[in-house]
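ok here's the first one, seq then struct tokens
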Amino acid sequence: MFYENHNVVEAATRDTHLDTTAAPQDAPVQSVQELEYDGEGDDEEDDEEDDEEDDSASEGDDLREELEEVFEGDFDFRGSYAYSSLFTDAPNPVLNITGVGPIGLPLSPRDAQLIITSATQAPFGHGTETKIDTSVRHTWEIEPARVSFGNAVWRTWMEETVVRGVATALGVPSSTTPPKCELYKLLLYEQDSHFLPHQDTVKAQNMFATIIVVLPSPYTGGQVHVSHSSSQQVFSFDSNSLLSTAVMAWYTDVQHEVKPITSGYRLALSYNLVHVTPGVPPPILPDMHSSIMSLRRVLKKWRTYKYPDIEPNIMCHILSHKYSPAGLSTGFKALKGKDSYLVAQLMPLATEQEFFVGLANLTYHQTGTADGDGGYGDYYKRRRGYGRYGYGRYGYGRYGYGRYGYYDSDCDDDDDEEVPGIDEVTDTTLTVENLFDMAGNKPARSKKISLDLENLVQQDAFEDVEPDEDHYEGYMGNYSGEVEQWYRRTVLIIMPEESARSVLYTSDYALEILHRAALERPGKPSPEDLLFANIVLNNFQHSPATLVTMAQYAVSWNNLELWRRVLSAGNWTASSVLPMKELVAGWKAFSFDSVCNSLEQIVQKAPQISRGISLIRDLVENGPQEDCQMAQQWADQLISQLLTTLEAPTVQDVSLLIETARKQGLSYLTCTLIPRLEKKSGLHDFWLAMIRELESNRTYFVSPPEAEGSSTSETQNQFENTKKRCLDIVLCNWEHGSADPPPVNNTPYYSHRPRPPPQSLVTHTTRVIQILDLCIDVGVLGICKVFLGLVMKKKPPTSDNFQTLYSPVISHIRQKLSTTNESVSFNSDVFVDFMGLILQTLKTPSSADVPWIIDILQTKGAPYMIQSFVPRLEKNVALYHFWYQFITTLVKDETAIVTKSTATDPDSKNSVPRFLDPLTRLWSLLAKAKPLTLQENFQTIYNPLIPQLRQLLTTKNLDISSSPFLELIQVVLGSYLRFVLGARPNPNALVPARKLGCGCSDCQVLDNFLMSKSLEQTFRLVQARRTHLERQLYSGRDLVSFTTIRSGSPHGLVVKKNRQVADYQSWMQRQSQTKTFLGTIGDGNMLRKIAGHRYGDVLTAFEGKQQFMLPWNSVASTSASTNHSSSGATGRTPSTTNSNPTAAPINTSLHGAPPPHLHNPGPSSTQSTSYMWPSQPALSASTPAIVMALGSSNPMPMMTGSALTVPGTNKRKKSTMVSMDTIDLTGED
């Protein structure tokens, strides 16, 4: 496989800002066998010996044992054989060369030439001779005696930064004295300078390594290749050579090569790194040859199936250190010491033998019976031991103290240490997760991979080892306690590349590998690259960006088969499977004949025929000019084929089909398209769009250009017939592909959400609205009327159908006609008949239906509303919101139905307008439909409606103090004063409000509360401040009480005013609200006219001097009121007797019981008194009378014409008087 070069993996262990680009694999590499610096090698002989050993290896060996034996070899070296780093802040050494002078940095070409004129060609050793051969080594050098540094900081930087960093990286023991560096030579590389592979000789006593410091000097090329055993690295700093200082170091027995400089000059200082600790041998590199060869043999046998099969084909080697997932995500850079060295030696062998190598976190979990458990002392205990990293998984136990969030009181630290071991293992699991390759990429498809102990290299890895975490269940009745143990390690993952591709690799990981391969080998794919390309394309979910990348690889690799696979693997996006740029690039790369079949397959996969044809045209337009004629013929033929075989058009295809009809005539639609599609289902939206598009092209089809813009009856008939044929298809199939919406109350008792309708089906409501919109827009109201008949036949206007179908449809039509179509009215015959049928069956209208109901009632007139509509609905007490919206609309809208009847009663002397008869009746219905408390009725009904009633009466030049409105307002006014305002608490029992504080900031807040209308306040203060307030409150126990809340921080001090104070302040608030309410009725003069002889009682009730008494005329006026008016605004004298002694007494109590805050002042306030107003004009027989809701203890009399009927009797009593005092504003029946 292609891997990021193993030299990069090794280089990643150091502090790097280096370019680790690998050298081209086909670059020639010469060998210097007998140089003094070269280590003589017999690699070919070794390989031959290895092959012989491989061939002689017997099958049936244990892979696990052999890998463990190899990894126990000499891999414990804790350093690296080479080091490199880039410094952007290195000091300027102020270089001076005797005979040349100061050298400026970065190095200029002028100074470089001066150095060359004073330097000598660097030699190399060959056996016992020293030779100069520029084909082997081409470098200029200057002796150290001629080199000096003018900056003293340079030496300090070299000793404290460079030498220390190199020593650490090369594994020099920290216990020894830091080595010293000695300048050996100044080296200058010009263009074509190089040095073939070689090894350094020891040039000073105890020298063990070489340091090269590259000073700032612009150049390109000159990569340094270092290798040891089977490990290789590449150091490249040319991209940062202008302003940075690079440092490289390696052991003397490390082979290295300097590639040719391609431009510029490279100036470097060569130092010897010398060991100075006496009595301790210099650091050396271990001899890894035998271990490397053994590891190579094992990997080769594994790859060639010489071992018994294991499932999965993967091995895990436990590393010496543990690494976090964040550390593993950096790949090889995370490794330390022996782990780093082992992987560095393994990586080149893995690349050579085609193995995947990665890092992962391993968890081994085992469960078993407790060792020596049998007593009862641990019954019910649940303990988690310390483990290695603290108290259990999440602190003390899993969720607190113990696994289940509790712990026995005697479970102390000593108990935790006594978690027993496992006597007998009953279950084990081994999983790896957080798998990364050595470059830090995540290849695994799943988060966790389950393995067996057979997949672990180390045998008995967890024997006699303390677990990282354990848990003891304790004694379990007849069974011994259960112990769980967790071991967590970091492992090295090794598996054949072939297995990794099928088990591990994801599409994203394969793309990353291909990307790195393309950077190193552009245009030259390896067999491994093609394998990774297959991994990408075999993924069923391809992003558009992925397909673009793979198409680009196919073109750059000149691989037609891969390009075809990319197209076949893709799905259509916004424009195509691939962008036009990539399609044309493939066309140019492989020729039109090679790609046309694949392009045709793309077109046929288009979700809409219009998009496919659009792609064809774009291809012809953007393709190579030399193929233009051939491509156009292909396009015409393909488009014709697509149009002829069209089976499932979409809305997006309509414009294309109309365009085709414009070219070929309407006969294309009537003779070709419609016959083929008219019986197909699922095309409702298509036909709607087709009709609209036809209508928008009416002018063209009725007056075609060939007719020079003139229309004929033939063309008009052909167009209308075509449109009608499409409409017939829509009407005949309006139910297909649609569904009823879910029932209103379909939520199951165990669910909080209604079941949604099927996503693939539209509701009947949506479908009906779509068709009606179409009929209105294209002006075919006759078909609209026919369609509404079809709908009512299929879906009768039952209660459920009305709520889900007819109500939203009617509201939509009304809104559409009011905003978009001036020629068609909602009150036209087309819709009025339909709405009338709906009204006849309407049982549960909602407030949303009010606008269209009023529109229809305007057309049908007031008699229809009073005689038919209202009686059918008035028994439904659940229509409060509807009646409220209905009455509000009637009052606000001067054009509403109630204003249609303004005739006066010719028999009445007062000539009372009759347009308010329906309103009065509806008002009574509204009160009946909302059986709430009296206060709620005033808030929701009377408070908002009275101002609107006044405004309506003003527009009609009527006085609210005139009959019949006077009696209604008197009842409302008296009820409000009696039951909403109520009696004022005795002020003599009140303690005057006063301040209790001392003047501090806390006391100021307290005093503000005491003087406010608030009844309760909480003070959250620290203890000292709360105590201070409590001292102040002790002096006001007659005003307030207080308690302390112990929850929260700080605690709270709750201060409540006493009941007398609270009641009085509450009444004061109601008095303020009463003032506002009285203002909605009228000013003082209007109130005087309305109240009449009770005006004084109104004032005294408002001032709280005396509670208002009901009925209105059941008591005599106070002395204060006698000065106002003895007969009231109407001059009538109240009667206190019932004029009809045989009828049941009428309860005039306006409320079944007074509100809880009111105290009964005496028997008179709860006594029921019968009273009849003087005679009023009788209602005509054609107008339904007011339905009056009486008290709960009495029947409800109803007026029909001039007769009063008492429920429960068959007697009809003549009566010309209506008792307004009997209207029950509470709505209680």
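and now the second one, same deal
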Amino acid sequence: MEEKGKKEEEKKKKKDKKKEEENYPNSWLITTIYKTFKWILIESALFKLLQDLLAFASPQLLKLMVSFIQDKSRYAWEGYLYAVLLLAVALLQSLFLQQYFQRCFVLGMKVRTAIMAAVYKKALVVSNDTRKESTVGETVNLMSADAQRFNEVTNFIHLLWSCPLQIILAIVFLWLELGPSVLAGLAVMVLMVPINGLLATKARNIQVKIMKFKDKRLKIMNEVLNGIKVRILKLYAWEPSFQAQVESIRGQELNVMKNFAYLSSVSTFIFTCAPALVSLATFAVFVGVSSENVLTAEKAFTSISLFNILRFPLAMLPMLIAAIVQTTVSKRRLEKFLGGEDLDSGIVQHDSSFSTFIIRIHSCSSAQCVSLDIKPGRLVAVVGAVGSGKSSLMSALLGEMHSTKGFINIQGSLAFVPQQAWIQNATLRDNILFGSPHEERRFQEVIQACALGPDLELLAGGDLTEIGEKVRKLHHLARAAYSQADIYLLDDPLSAVDSHVGKHLFDKVIGPSGLLKDKTRILVTHGVSFLPFVDEIVVLQDGVVTEIGSYNSLRASRGAFSEFLDTYAKEQSNQTQSESGNHILSHCSNDIHCTSYCTLLTEPKTVTAYVLMCDYYLHRGVRLRKNSSIRKPENADESKKGQRLIEKETMETGQVKFSVFLQYLRAMGWGYAVTVFLLYFTQNVAFIGQNLWLSDWTNDAVEYYNRTYPSWKRDTRVGVFGALGVVQGLFVFLGTLSLANASVAASRILHSRLLNNILRVPMLFFDTTPIGRVVNRFAKVGCIIDFCASIPQSFRSWVLCLLGVLGTLFVICLATPFFTIVIVPLALVYYFVQRFYVATSRQLRRLDSVSRSPIYSHFSETVSGLSVIRAYGHQERFLKHNEITIDENLKSVYPWIVSNRWLAIRLEFLGNLVVFFAALFAVISRDSLDSGLVGLSISYALNVTQTLNWLVRMTSELETNIVAVERVSEYSEIENEAQWVNNTRPPEKWPEEGRLQFKNYKVRYRPGLDLVLHGITCDIGSTEKIGIVGRTGAGKSSLTNCLFRIIEAAEGHILIDDIDISTIGLHDLRNRLTIIPQDPVLFSGTLRMNLDPFDKFSDEDIWRVLELSHLKDYVAGLQEGLQHEVAEGGENLSVGQRQLLCLARALLRKSRILILDEATAAVDLETDNLIQNTIRKEFSHCTVLTIAHRLHSIMDSSRVMVLDAGKIVEIDSPSNLLKKQGHFYAMAKDAGITIEDITVL
């Protein structure tokens, strides 16, 4: 199947780029992005350059200012001029900086969008092999996490050249101030770089590990949620096992994260110490080199403000490098995916010269060769045992398989109905139209033909009802029928429906007189009963076509097919032909072959055939519908509450509740939170102390003017200055360390709370919530709360910024007491700007996160329905839809970027005013000030702009990220279903007899909807075998849901062995019942885990049940045996094998009560027989309830319960019911079953 070696890869990423390489093309992504966006890049670079140059004007002005204050003889206007110049320079700087930011952020947004669009586009054309390399979860991650990484790096990409430039300029100016002693400070900085580099590589390795665990965790989460969605996890009470799996991965993830947190505290320590150490080294060397060098105020504070400029590029470089490193990981993942092999569109040719055949296949894959020619307008059935390659043939026709040699030629358009239904989260109408224009007449025809009419009448919104992610298959056949294609590929669409619906679908849609009678149809089927009506039958065995021909010729040829039929249809000539037979004769042109067909029908064993002829409901239903043509609900405009199944995602508005902050602090632990704050506070005190000490030091220059500077004093100055620097570093280190521990603890608590609750939420929640939305909570939210991500970081930055701003104001007031006058008005302006901004920003962020979910759920929907989308050729439409969803999201991203610029301009203006006033007051009261303090206050003020800006940004960032806690807590507080285990525990061996009693049992799916079961009352004795029949929607499945308490009673009780099931815990109940469900669901993991997730049973037990379920030979033949890895969703096993595994699960549980939800739907006749016999033999001592779609499988039941519209219409033994000539008799008559048959049985 796979041909490795040199693959030619191709990727459309705005530009098509081709490269050939051994595995996949790499290092093309960055250059492509550059080529696409280079003009924005150049523009923004220009603004950044201007801003950088202006940044160095302020220290020079500061120097002039200080010398002006020292020299009392100079004119006052000079001082005012400097103050105004300081303001002007700062304003220009702000404007340039914001222009630059605006361009960069918009660029980041564009890059993210381009990558998302490219990933989506690629997903539509990716080959099946490449698709199997990564799970749906991982692919969605490319779109969410990796595209986001690129966005973040692009925002700051210019710092790569701007940082070095700033560093060089700063050093030049420092040299002019302090001469060669600058080199000492520089040396310290240079030493920091390799240390930071080391930490960055370490961090990157940890990052990769975290990503691995995250992928793994999300993959399991995705499966768990899907498992709950189809009810399996709940029916089997397997939640604890999967909860343990997720928790253990999460534990590993958090341990790795803890290491990451410790690492970052070390780098924070180094980062905090750096400026102090640099200035210490420089000043110490400066005063130590010669006694001539005296530290004056202008020298000290000009240098300090230059060092402050230096801090930013030095801090940013390692962060930038780390971010780029993370992005390279993403780059690799993206290039691997985007460069993966495309589906070879040349496999299927569309050559019109083969006019006689609409489909020609001559192709070989691995060892088998298939040759097949199909003429237009024929109905071709494909039959064969489980695993004989029927679905592979379908894939080949769709062009989804590797063709090693040969060709496939198809003329005309395709429609495809896959075996496993794929339904979009949209209205029923949209699912059927699937992008075609809506024509009411054709739509109604299709709905009637596909037997959807009665279903629609039950739905509140008619065809505008939203249907969830998993719904019945009929809509899917309707989609195909509506599409008016030339060729229909039908992969077993009749298996999952009731027999009469199956017959109806065959008659009205697929068969010789159906809706599609003039089209070419290829039908994969297990149903023997349809075969006489098809034009041609293709028999597959082990991937090879063994026979082709009409029904008669194949019977006559006595080949494999004829044996296959004989096994199921030994013709007993003594069978009387029932009316049903004569009824069929009228369909037939060839009497002889039809007689054999009728015999085949009336013979008891054949009636196992899928779809029994059962017109009773249809006649009744059709008559009713002819008049109504699907009544529109009278009050169609008032759409009912029940109609929207998928509720819109809720979104909190207004301020984030304070309780959410408290909740997070509580999760962290109060002790930790207080400690962190105190440690940071002490650090800030040390910082101010250090600077006051410096300003005192500069006054020595005045004091010892023209005198020798005593060495002891010099040593004291240097020593204290240095000590205070180290103390800062130490406190920050301790603070960050405690924060790391606290946030990992919080993360653990919040995640397990979320997981714990989601597993206990009632089914209703999953019916109304797309899985993507829940996974999104686990993914995004997990990310924000975790230490490596936002909340702890923004918490730390917020505390540091707040303290920084307060410190600055304190120092300025200390230097120029006048300044206190302006503080109040400035603070007011600041407050209003901040309130206004934070509210807007917060809401925009919420809109952003709500509008992101649909992008991902649409994407995962697309990936899972890929073969359908491709078959219909609807890639363009889905691309368009994806673009629309992304644009919706951008509508909230762009305003957010602009709002940030709005804020920054206003805040920086405020900061610039602070500088101006500090300078102004210094000039006014220059007679009473010493130059040291003035230098200190202005150099502080120059720094405050940045800090003010950050403080608001952090406040908003913190609020935004806290929204994550809000969203986790929203899902952690949904009402739970009943307790898993409560105080009333049933006896150990319960149920010993397996008696069931229903007492006036009523139930509805959701509050506000109508009842689905109206007062069911009946007693079922121990070891009775009960068949449950009724048309679709009669309440058969609801009955099983009630037994397992998936839906709770509206009134009435169910007793099992005299214990009311509503009084005991759900797991006590569900563990004692066994169900073999309709859809066989498997989880990724070992085969063993799929059978026995709790490791309760020994290997012998497991091999025994595998033998009973006829899988022993298959499993024994696998390399890993029981440890064989099952793919996501069990995709590496055929549907039949999955169904047998479900049987094995049931055999392991050995419960006294077994519920069979017509489990044999997707299985061929042989497997069906195996399953039926195993159940008869192994469960003879159990009470068995069979929900039957085919009457034959329940003819040997002790009693049959006939349901209609949620009531029991008849319940008695099959023979008595036939004598009664009621509902059951009519169904049996249509199925050609007579009383004689039962006596034979």
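notes on #2: The first strand starts at residue 7 and ends at 13. Confidence is low (pLDDT under 50) at residues 1-22, 570-643.
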